[in-house]
Amino acid sequence: MAKFVLAGKADCPYFAKAERLADLLHKNLPSFTMHKIVQHPDDWEQWLQTICDTNGWKHNRSPIVWREMIDRGGKGLLLGGFSEFMEHAQIYYGITSDIKADLMMTISAENLQTKIDLMEEETYYKGLIKPLHIWITSALSPVCYNLIPLLCNGEIFGESTFISLHLLNIKGAVEELSALKMESEDLSLPLLHEVTVHADLNDAFMNAGVIIVLDEVKQEELSNTCKEYGHLIDSNAHSDVRVVVAGNSYVNLKCYMIMQSAPSIATCNFVAVATHLENIARSQLAKKLNVTTSEVKCVLMWGNIGGSIYIDLQRAKVYNYDGAVCGPPHFSQPVLEMVYDTKWLETEFLITVNKHQRTVRKKLQHSLGISEANGICTVLHRWYHDSPPGEIMSLGVLSEGQYGIPEDLVFSMPVTFHNGIWKVVSDIKHSDDVKEKLQLIAKEMTGEKVFALKTTTFAS
pLDDT digit string (tens) for 393-411? Predict the structure, then answer.
């Protein structure tokens, strides 16, 4: 037996009459099924237009009845309105219905009130959910595409935290943003509460608990963009918002400029991601030592993410290395003692790490997505769940003069996370040669900052 669908405005008397006829058909023909869709009068016209456009139908009144071709596939077969439905019932089933006008009006009024009650109940229960609002800028970048499922799988923010995802791309592309929203919703992730898209800065960062900045901007545009972001974060986001800045260029500077334009947010809530650079170095070392990348840890990146970086291996360690000395899975050995080829470390290793991203981008013909998304998620996971015991990582944070780095400069240095707070590791010793390298990097970064400050005025 065919399956029919009846849809109409909640306050429509003819929808009420069609309902009674459908109930009568089911009573006399148990295998007859009718799925009912009730729309609020305010939503009816838009809903009807959408359903007709989707199926190629022409119909402009309530109710609408169609037959689902469940045994053949393809779109449904439109019957029409109430008159066509009643004629179909008389011809094929020999059943009709006679209902008085006053009863039709009574039923339609009851339908409307029931619909209103259901909508209010749905609104109430939705209001009980307090989602974490995550905003991602430059949302059409490959990084964002890879981030979305990772952010909403429960591993970072907890399996009871619902996510409201806000995708911002201020360079327009509304259609592409809408498509990304649809694809995100199609993931059917249990913790993804809602997805909104934004092609301008109206209400940007509203109620944000986490903000991920992915913008790649030219140096001359950087000041204005970061200033706008900072002001909006300051006025719209939660006071304890966590801002993660990522990318391939001016990452530290973007983090600093946004921070300076959001004076009410604690500076420790702004960080720049260097994890993907760490992982590139770990990967090269792992190949050299014939282990997996995950078995090389504590490789540190000092300085300017996306610019001049000093790679520090003095704390780096390798697990499961097949050498003269071996031990249980938790046993590690210093990388510098296991890599005997010092010349390789000083030449090929540094060259490969420095050009690796450019090489991959050239082959992909677009910016990196998977590795950068993974790096961002690693930072967030440790921010919410602490660093693994004995592990340190690189993070761009505001310097307070540690290791002789000038104050008021976002500089990548080693940190650990504990109880939602990062702390700079303070017991690393540097040779005079390394100290000089760090000072040269700091000088370069100070020059970038001075140039940027010339073109903007920060909030007081």
Answer: 999 999 999 999 999 999 9
